[in-house]
Specification:
alpha/beta, five-stranded parallel beta sheet, 7 strands, 44% helix, disordered N terminus
Length: 170
């Protein structure tokens, strides 16, 4: 029986080794800081909750000086339709330089929205899984890059509603 237990323990230890090595290697990458990301998301959570605005407030703020509507969807989806006045910088292209070029001043007011803000669930705003809505990553990343004057459309609307001011592809 002892030999059997020892053999099973040896097999388990060998089976666990690749996983442990993979986790160790990932944590060791100098360009990836998962713990830092977790800390950032915890820091942003309460801050973001106070920055969700209604469509009416979103549109009122959009008309004020020093305000940018940022559409972080793909360039293709942006071209297919977006809120009037929005600038496009795909989330996958966020860097210090691209954000500085697009947003100019880190103190500018930034209004964000994404697919899950629209009830249509049709191109160009097909719904994402709610826990993976791009608004969340966009907000966290803007905050992490030093942009703290960020507000997010906090409701779901129909892009055909004239109050949304949706620009359809031509």
């Amino acid at each position: 029986m002892r030999a059997f237990v020892a053999a099973v323990a040896a097999m388990l230890s060998v089976a666990a080794t690749p996983l442990a090595e993979a986790q160790s290697a990932n944590q060791g990458s100098p360009a990836i800081d998962y713990q830092g990301f977790r800390g950032l998301t915890a820091q942003v959570e309460d801050y973001r909750a106070g920055r969700l605005v209604s469509l009416a407030e979103f549109q009122r703020m959009a008309r004020e000086p020093n305000t940018i509507i940022l559409d972080a969807r793909s360039t293709e989806r942006y071209r297919e339709g977006h809120i009037d006045g929005a600038v496009n910088l795909p989330f996958t292209e966020f860097t210090d330089a691209s954000l500085r070029q697009t947003l100019r001043d880190p103190n500018v007011r930034i209004l964000i929205y994404c697919n899950n803000n629209f009830s249509n669930n049709a191109n160009p705003v097909v719904l994402k899984r709610i826990e993976l809505a791009l608004n969340i990553q966009t907000f966290i990343n803007l905050y992490g890059y030093g942009y703290r004057n960020v507000y997010e459309l906090g409701e779901q609307v129909d892009f055909n509603d004239p109050a949304v001011r949706w620009v359809h592809a031509e």
